[in-house]
Specification:
- By secondary structure, this protein is an alpha/beta fold.
- The chain folds into two domains: 267 residues, TIM Barrel (Alpha-Beta Barrel); 64 residues.
- Helices cover 41% and strands 14% of the residues.
- The protein is built from 13 helices and ten strands.
- The protein has an eight-stranded parallel barrel, surrounded by six helices. Strands 2-3 form a two-stranded parallel ribbon.
- Helix 3 packs parallel to helix 5 and helix 10 runs antiparallel to helix 13.
- Bound molecules: flavin mononucleotide (FMN).
């Protein structure tokens, strides 16, 4: 059995995982803009989700992993620092029908680092190795018929997954692709050594953001370092996706050629821009932005419910910019209190 990664046409241009942004409604909006290679990303990553929480039975965390069929191939990203919990969480995402699972070894957030996960794993190769092994065991065990109950997975989680699978076509016994998304290093660039280490592991793909943890998002991503790492990964037969500061599809394709990577992940340039992957879309009118925001908001309400209006606000701020009068409209929309008010306001603003 081959994972989906091997079947993708290069360059592989995907939606990068972003906590608080690549939620199910946003991913849906991005996926519905087209077909692969004509408007839609070649692969889509979820926000990251904590394995320790999943393992404890916090079923609400699985809402982060909701997805719809049009998002395929879809990769669930996991973070944490316990290999046992990674094993269980991997079985869960397998049972939910994901195409791939990705291990976060790049997050610079303090709360993640303090727990030993995210980019802290760059400083802990022994644990990184154990985690990768655990994820691989999870993927293989699932493909070989492992039963989730016998793996000690919490009953609330089992119920949630059963419910999800009633609504989707998930849960085939397929072999998921395994990847690691990481940075050049912790406080200095050790990418050649680190990527050599990762390339010896049993994974399909390495996604490399061209900054260290210490840099957070400052300065520019170092694509020369990404390029050197790509050679190392290729020698070991791994797929390498570069990441950092890409602003357009044209730039993404050019970077893949110049720096010899198999593809790229795009993050911030997609904010409020679900059309990013559609090269033909050179401009988006004010009306189209507002109509898309309305559709996004209605879908957001349908999935997460009336009470979850606040988390939508960052999307409102992302859509409502770069047109005449955007600043005032944005301020007004951000002052609203619920979905009904937003729907009314948008309907008045949208010109028929
Ligand atoms: C708000 C925000 C949330 C992010 N959340 C995640 C995450 O959950 N997992 C992850 O691997 N990277 C995460 N990232 C990093 C992005 O996936 C990406 O690596 C980074 O933004 C650089 O790419 P870009 O310049 O195209 O945005 C996040 C970045 C931002 C700005």
């Amino acid at each position: 059995m081959q994972s989906f990664w091997k079947k993708l046409e290069k360059p592989i241009l995907g939606l990068s995982p972003m906590d608080g942004v690549t939620d199910a409604p946003f991913r849906y909006m991005v996926a519905k803009t087209g077909k692969p290679k004509v408007g839609k990303p070649d692969v889509i990553f979820t926000e990251f989700v904590n394995v320790e929480g999943l393992s404890r039975g916090a079923a609400r965390l699985l809402n982060i992993l909701l997805y719809s069929e049009i998002e395929r191939p879809i990769v669930a990203q996991l973070f944490g620092a316990s290999s046992e919990d990674f094993y269980k969480a991997t079985l869960m995402v397998c049972a939910m029908g994901f195409d791939g699972v990705d291990i976060n070894m790049g997050c610079p957030a303090n709360n993640v680092i303090k727990g030993g996960g995210g980019a802290a794993l760059i400083k802990n190769p022994d644990l990184s190795k154990k985690i990768i092994q655990a994820v691989k065991y999870g993927v293989d065990d699932w493909a070989n018929g492992k039963n989730l109950k016998s793996a000690g997975i919490d009953s609330e989680i089992l119920k949630w997954i059963d419910n999800f699978n009633i609504c989707s076509q998930a849960s085939a016994r397929k072999l998921l692709g395994v990847g690691v998304k990481t940075r050049l290093g912790y406080d200095s660039d050790i990418s050649e050594e680190w990527v050599s280490f990762l390339s010896e592991r049993n994974i399909d793909v390495i996604s490399l953001h061209g900054r260290t943890l210490k840099q957070m998002y400052q300065g520019q991503a170092d694509w020369d370092a990404v390029s050197k790492s790509a050679k190392i990964a290729h020698d070991a037969g791994k797929i390498m996706l570069g990441n950092g500061d890409i602003k357009s599809m044209g730039e993404a394709k050019e970077k893949c050629k110049i720096y010899g990577v198999d593809g790229a992940l795009i993050g911030r340039a997609t904010w409020g821009n679900p059309w990013f992957f559609d090269e033909k879309k050179t401009s988006v009118s004010k009306n189209e932005k507002l109509e898309t925001l309305l559709e996004h908001a209605l879908y957001f309400k349908k999935i997460f419910g009336e009470k979850h209006f606040s988390p939508l606000k960052k999307h409102i701020a992302h859509y409502v910019k770069n047109f005449d009068g955007a600043c005032e409209i944005r301020q007004n929309l951000l002052a609203l209190k619920n979905f009904d008010e937003l729907e009314d306001a948008l309907k008045k603003l949208i010109q028929k």
